[in-house]
Specification:
The chain is an alpha+beta fold. Among the domains are: about 190 residues, Valyl/Leucyl/Isoleucyl-tRNA synthetase, editing domain (Isoleucyl-tRNA Synthetase, domain 2, Alpha-Beta Complex); about 170 residues, Isoleucyl-tRNA Synthetase, Domain 1 (Orthogonal Bundle); about 100 residues, hypothetical protein PF0899 fold, CATH 3.30.2320; about 90 residues. Helix content is about 40%, strand content about 20%. It has 34 helices and 36 strands. The chain has a 6-stranded mixed beta sheet, covered by helices on one side. It has a 4-stranded antiparallel beta sheet with strand order 4-3-16-18. Strands 21-20-23-22 form a 4-stranded antiparallel beta sheet. Strand 20 and strand 21 form a beta hairpin. Helix 1 packs antiparallel against helix 23 and helix 23 packs parallel to helix 27.
Length: about 1000
C-alpha cells in the first residue's frame, strides 16, 4: 500500500466500502458463509417483518444493524445462521397508501370503488419500496436472504394463520362481544388495547362544564365536566360516586343553584357563592334530569338519570361525569351495571362523522359549543392539556366506540404469559422485567378483528338461519366444502364461497372482518415455513428463536403477540434472547419527521462517513440499552476518527514497512515486553468482547474497543516506530524487527476477526490488506468465513499489563505538569522525582524507567520513598535543589508524588531545538506525500549562528531521521520559501526527493 493509497483509504473510506460490497458479490460471500456452515447446528433468528410502504428510517437501520451483528457473531462461532427476510404486507399501512393513490377516503368510498379492485391494487403496490429497502440494508452491510423472503400475503402463510386460528378456536379462546373499543375513525376499525397505547400525545383539548337541569326543580342544575363535547348528543346518564360529599351552592348574582362535589368548588370560577346544602352522592342517585338533546327522549323514563360510577374521581372536573355508553369504556360499564339501556352508536358513523351535523367529530365541536350557548347550558369553557391516544398508523385522535368485535382470551393465559416471560433474556433486563412484565400483569383480552379489506380473513362461516359458526383450518377443508379450487385466501375470493350448514341445512357465509395484522406478525414463526402443512419435521429445530431484536415500541406489539400466540398454542416461549433498542430522535430530542426535515438522510450519512461509522455510532450510544438517542452527525464523524481511521492508519503503517523490509512474518522467541503487553491486551479484549456478546450486551463493546485501539496506536505502534524504521545491522536487530512485524501482524489479524460482526467493511479491508502481504495456509477468502477469536490464557501477562497501566498513568500526570509549566513535550527536561512508599510502584518504575525517560523526554528520573533535599550528587553538578531559583512543579495521584524540574540548561535548550526542527521537517516530508522509504536532499537556510551550529553538530541525527542523503547549509535569505519558526528562531527549508 503506497502513501497515496493510504491517504485515499482514509479520505474515500465510503468508496472502499462500496468496493467491499462488489467483492462480496463476486465471491457470493453470504451464500458461501452459509455453505461453509451447512453441517453445523443452527442458531435461529426471527426477523420481524416491516411494512414496505415507506423508506427505511434510522429505527430500521438500528434494528437491521443488531440483526446483522448477532448472526455474524454466531456464524463465526461455528453456527449455521440462516437469515430470512420477511415483509408485512397486510393492513392499514398499505390500504392508506392505496386510498391516497386512488383518491378515496374511508370504507364507504372503497366499497363503492369495489373491494376486489381495491385489494388487487393493494397487492400490486404493497412492495413498491422493496428495492429501496434492499439497497439500504445491503449498503448498511447487513447480510440477509431477500430472495427467499416470506410475505404475509402469500397463500401458504395465510393458510398457516387459519390453522393457528382454528387451533385457538378449538381451545375456546375466541369469543365475540359488543364492547367499547379504541377506534380509529380514519381507518374505520377498532384497534386492540396495545395498539391504542403505541402513540400517546400531549395535546390541548376543550374542557367544558355543562348545566343539566334536575327534573321537578325550578332552578337546580348538575354541573357536569367533559373533554369530549361531541359525545354530549349521545348522553344517557350522569355518574356520581355514592361516598363523595356533594354540595348545592347558590351564586351571589343568580337564583340558580348548582350541585358539585365539595372538593371541586374551584370549578365554579368564582368565590361569590354560598353553600345551601351538603349531602352524600347516594342521596341524589336515581334523580332524573332534562337532557340537552332529545335523540333518546322516547325512553326518558329509563335513561337521563343520576347513577353511581366507580370511575368518578375528584382529581379533575366537578365530581359529576357525563356518560355516553356508546363512546366510553367506563360509561358503558357504569350504565350496564345500573340497567341503563344501550341504544346504539348511530350518532357517529364509522368514519367519525357526527351525523346530526354531518361533520367530523372534531370539526363539529365549535358548532356544538354555540348550540350549548344558545340552549343556555354552557357554564364554562376552557382548555386542558392532557395525554391522549392517537392512531399509530393514521396519526388521528382515537375515539372509543361501542362495536361488535372478536376477542382472544388473553386473561386466561396471563399466568402462563408471566411465567414464560421469566424464561426470556431481555437486554436491557428492566424492559422485560418491568415494562413488558407490568404490561403482562395488566393484559386485557385482545381484539383481533378489523373492519378492513386487505388482510387475512377471519376463517369463520356463520349460518344466517341458526347462527351456527364453523371455523375453517385449511384450504383443503374449504375446497371440500365449496366443491371448488381455492386460488387465493383474500376476502374478495373467499367471501364468494358459501356452503350448507351442517346443523340446519341453511347457508353459511363468511363473517366480514379480517384479522389484526399483528396476529400475522406474531404467527410468523409458524407461517413463514407453512407449518404444519409443510416442514413439520424441522419446525421443532427452528422454534423457539435464539434471538430477535426490535425497538422499544414492540414490547406492546410484536414481542407481545409472539408471546401470546406461542403461549396459547404451545405454552412455550417464542424467543430466548431479545435486544430492545430505543427511539432515534433528532438532535434536539424531537421525534424525527419527514415533513419537518429535522434529520439527515441515513444514506447520505453513509455516503459521507461510511456504514461502519454509523454502526459504531449506534453501538457506542445507549440506544441498544433501550434508551432514546438524539441523533447527531458529529457523533458519526467522531466514530470514524476514533475507530475507522486509526485502524486504517495501523494497516497502512504495517503494509508500508513490511513492503520496504520484505520481512517474513515468523513467530520467534525474541518478543519485547511491549510485544508481550499488546498480545496480552488483545487476549483480554477477545475475552471481554466474547463475554459481552454472549450476554447480548452490544452497547458495551465499542467503548472497550476504543480503549484497545488507543493502546495499539498511541502506545504500542508509536513507541515501536523505530523498530520498524531502523535498518537491521545485525542478527539481534533482525530478530527484533521480525518480532515487531509478527506481533503487529498477529494483533491486526485478530482484530480483523474480532470486529467483523460489528464493522463488516472495515474488518474485510483490514483482513484483505493483511493476507495480501502474507497469506497463511489456513486463511479464508473473506474474514467473515473465519472462526471468531478465542481467548488464549497463555498469552496473558497480567503483571506486565498492570505495570504498563501504572507507567501510562504516570506519563499522563507528568504531561499535565508540563502543561502547567508551559513546557512542550519536545523540550527535554533534566529531572523528575517520583516519591512513593508503595513497593509495587517502586519496582514498576525501576523496571520501566527507560520508558518514562523516553516517553516524557526527561534525562533523569529519581525514584524515592521519601523526598531528600541533598541529592545534588544524583543529578549532577548542573543543579542544586537548595537553589531557590529552581522551578519544581508537584502533583499527587493515587498516593504518588511527582515533582518536575523545569529549569533549562544550555544543552537541554539545544536538544530541544534539534527535536523541534526534526518535527517540523518530518511534517514537511508528510505534506509532500513522500513514501517512508524515499531519500531526500535537504537544504536549510538559517540566520542564527547559534541555531546553525546547534543543528550542524547534530547533522547525522537529522540525516538518519529524515532519510537525507545530504544537507546543504546556507543563510535564510538565500533559501527561497516560507519562514518556519523553531523556538524563537526562523529557518527556511527545501526538500527534494531523490530518484
Amino acid at each position: 500500500m503506497t502513501k497515496e493509497e493510504s491517504i485515499q483509504l482514509q479520505i474515500n473510506y465510503p468508496e472502499r466500502e462500496e468496493d467491499v460490497l462488489k467483492f462480496w458479490d463476486t465471491i457470493f460471500a453470504f451464500e458461501q458463509s452459509l455453505e461453509i456452515r451447512k453441517d453445523s447446528s443452527e442458531y435461529i433468528v426471527y426477523d420481524g417483518p416491516p411494512f414496505a410502504t415507506g423508506l427505511p428510517h434510522y429505527g430500521h437501520f438500528v434494528s437491521s444493524m443488531t440483526k446483522d451483528i448477532i448472526p455474524r457473531y454466531w456464524t463465526m462461532q461455528g453456527k449455521l445462521v440462516k437469515r430470512r427476510f420477511g415483509w408485512d404486507t397486510h393492513g392499514v399501512p398499505i390500504e392508506m397508501e392505496v386510498e391516497k393513490d386512488l383518491n378515496l377516503k374511508g370504507p364507504s368510498q372503497i366499497r363503492k370503488y369495489g373491494i376486489t379492485e381495491f385489494n388487487e391494487e393493494c397487492r400490486r403496490k404493497v412492495l413498491r419500496y422493496a428495492q429501496e429497502w434492499e439497497h439500504s440494508i445491503r449498503r448498511l452491510g447487513r447480510w440477509v436472504d431477500f430472495r427467499n423472503n416470506y410475505k404475509t400475503m402469500d397463500k401458504p402463510f395465510m393458510e398457516t394463520i387459519w390453522w393457528l386460528f382454528h387451533k385457538l378456536w378449538k381451545k375456546g379462546l375466541f369469543y365475540k362481544d359488543f364492547r367499547v373499543m379504541p377506534y380509529s375513525w380514519r381507518l374505520s376499525t377498532p384497534l386492540s388495547n396495545f395498539e391504542a397505547g403505541l402513540d400517546y400525545r400531549l395535546v390541548k383539548d376543550l374542557s367544558i362544564v355543562l348545566k343539566f337541569k334536575l327534573k321537578n326543580s325550578n332552578n337546580t342544575y348538575l354541573l357536569v365536566w367533559t373533554t369530549t363535547p361531541w359525545t354530549i348528543p349521545a348522553n344517557l346518564a350522569i355518574a356520581i360516586r355514592r361516598d363523595l360529599r356533594y354540595v348545592k351552592v347558590k351564586l351571589d348574582n343568580s337564583l340558580d343553584q348548582y350541585i358539585i362535589e365539595k372538593t371541586c368548588l374551584n370549578m365554579l370560577k368564582t368565590s361569590n357563592f354560598s353553600i345551601v346544602e351538603t349531602f352524600l352522592g347516594q342521596e341524589i342517585e336515581g334523580a332524573h334530569y332534562e337532557p340537552i338533546f332529545d335523540y333518546y327522549k322516547g325512553g326518558a323514563n329509563r335513561v337521563f338519570q343520576v347513577i353511581h360510577g366507580d370511575h368518578v374521581s375528584t382529581d379533575m372536573g366537578t365530581g359529576l361525569v357525563h356518560l355516553a355508553p356508546a363512546y366510553g369504556q367506563d360509561d358503558f360499564i357504569a350504565c350496564k351495571k345500573s340497567g341503563i339501556p344501550f341504544w346504539g352508536n348511530h350518532l357517529v358513523d364509522e368514519e367519525g362523522n357526527l351525523l346530526p351535523l354531518n361533520l367530523n367529530i372534531k370539526l363539529a365541536e365549535p358548532f356544538l359549543i354555540n348550540e350549548f350557548i344558545e340552549k343556555g347550558c354552557l357554564y364554562s369553557k376552557d382548555k386542558i392539556e392532557h395525554s391522549y391516544p392517537y392512531c399509530w398508523r393514521s396519526g388521528t385522535p382515537l375515539i372509543y366506540r361501542a362495536i361488535p368485535s372478536w376477542f382472544l382470551k388473553v386473561d386466561n393465559l396471563k399466568d402462563s404469559l408471566i411465567e414464560n416471560n421469566k424464561r426470556i433474556l431481555w437486554v436491557p433486563e428492566d424492559v422485560g422485567r418491568k415494562r413488558f412484565g407490568n404490561w403482562l400483569e395488566n393484559a386485557q383480552d385482545w381484539c383481533v378483528s378489523r373492519n378492513r379489506f386487505w388482510g387475512t380473513p377471519i376463517p369463520l362461516w356463520e349460518c344466517k338461519t341458526c347462527q351456527h359458526i364453523k371455523c375453517i383450518q385449511s384450504i383443503s377443508q374449504l375446497e371440500a366444502l365449496a366443491s371448488r379450487n381455492i386460488e387465493d385466501l383474500h376476502p374478495h375470493f373467499v367471501d364468494l364461497i358459501c356452503f350448507s350448514c351442517e346443523k340446519c341445512l341453511g347457508t353459511m357465509y363468511r363473517i366480514p372482518e379480517v384479522l389484526d395484522c399483528w396476529f400475522e406478525s406474531g404467527a410468523m414463526p409458524y407461517a413463514q415455513s407453512h407449518y404444519p402443512f409443510e416442514n413439520s419435521h424441522v419446525f421443532k429445530y427452528k422454534f423457539p428463536a435464539d434471538f430477535i431484536s426490535e425497538g422499544l415500541d414492540q414490547t406492546r406489539a410484536w414481542f407481545y403477540t409472539l408471546l401470546i400466540l406461542s403461549t396459547a398454542v404451545l405454552n412455550e416461549i417464542p424467543f430466548r434472547n431479545v435486544v430492545v433498542s430505543g427511539l432515534v430522535l433528532d438532535k434536539n430530542g424531537n421525534k424525527m419527521s419527514k415533513s419537518r426535515k429535522n434529520y439527515p438522510d441515513p444514506l447520505l450519512i453513509i455516503k459521507e462517513y461510511g456504514a461502519d461509522a454509523l454502526r459504531a455510532y449506534f453501538l457506542n450510544s445507549s440506544i441498544l440499552n433501550s434508551e432514546p438517542l438524539k441523533f447527531d452527525e458529529k457523533g458519526v464523524k467522531d466514530m470514524k476518527r476514533l475507530i475507522i481511521l486509526p485502524i486504517c492508519n495501523s494497516l497502512s503503517f504495517f503494509i508500508q514497512y513490511i513492503k520496504i523490509d520484505q520481512c517474513l512474518i515468523l513467530q520467534n522467541n525474541h518478543l519485547s515486553y511491549l510485544d508481550k503487553w499488546i498480545l496480552s491486551k488483545m487476549q483480554n479484549l477477545i475475552l471481554e468482547i466474547n463475554i459481552k456478546m454472549k450476554r447480548y450486551e452490544l452497547y458495551k463493546v465499542v467503548s472497550i474497543l476504543i480503549c484497545f485501539i488507543d493502546d495499539l496506536t498511541n502506545w504500542y505502534i508509536r513507541r515501536n516506530r523505530r523498530r520498524f524504521w531502523r535498518e537491521a545491522l545485525n542478527l539481534a536487530d533482525k530478530l527484533d524487527k521480525e518480532a515487531a512485524y509478527f506481533t503487529l501482524y498477529s494483533v491486526l489479524k485478530s482484530l480483523s476477526k474480532l470486529i467483523a460482526p460489528f464493522f463488516p467493511f472495515l474488518s474485510e479491508i483490514l483482513y484483505q490488506g493483511l493476507i495480501d502481504v502474507y497469506k497463511e495456509p489456513q486463511d479464508k477468502k473473506s474474514v467473515h468465513f473465519c472462526d471468531y477469536p478465542t481467548f488464549n490464557s497463555i498469552l496473558v501477562e497480567e503483571k506486565l499489563e498492570t505495570e504498563i497501566e501504572i507507567i501510562r498513568k504516570a506519563v499522563n500526570v507528568v504531561r499535565i505538569l508540563r502543561e502547567r509549566a508551559k513546557v512542550k513535550v519536545k523540550q527535554p527536561l533534566g529531572v523528575l522525582w517520583i516519591i512513593t512508599k508503595n513497593e509495587q510502584f517502586i519496582n514498576c518504575f525501576c523496571n520501566h524507567v527507560s520508558i518514562l525517560e523516553q516517553e516524557l523526554n526527561i534525562k533523569q528520573i529519581i525514584i524515592q520513598k521519601e523526598f531528600q533535599q541533598d541529592i545534588t550528587n544524583n543529578i549532577g553538578e548542573s543543579f542544586d535543589v537548595k537553589d531557590s531559583n529552581l522551578n519544581v512543579f508537584w502533583m499527587t495521584q493515587e498516593g504518588i508524588d511527582y515533582g518536575l524540574l523545569t529549569n533549562l540548561t544550555p544543552s537541554l535548550i539545544e536538544e530541544g531545538l534539534v527535536r523541534e526542527t526534526l518535527s517540523v521537517l518530518q511534517k514537511l516530508r508528510k505534506n509532500m506525500k513522500l513514501e517512508v522509504s524515499d531519500r531526500i536532499m535537504l537544504k536549510i537556510g538559517i540566520e542564527s549562528e547559534f541555531l546553525m551550529n546547534t543543528l550542524k553538530s547534530n547533522e547525522k541525527l537529522l540525516k538518519d531521521e529524515l532519510l537525507a542523503v545530504k544537507i546543504l547549509w546556507d543563510t535564510k535569505s538565500i533559501v527561497v520559501g516560507q519562514d518556519i519558526k523553531i523556538g524563537c528562531f526562523f529557518i527556511r527549508a527545501i526538500i527534494n526527493k531523490l530518484d
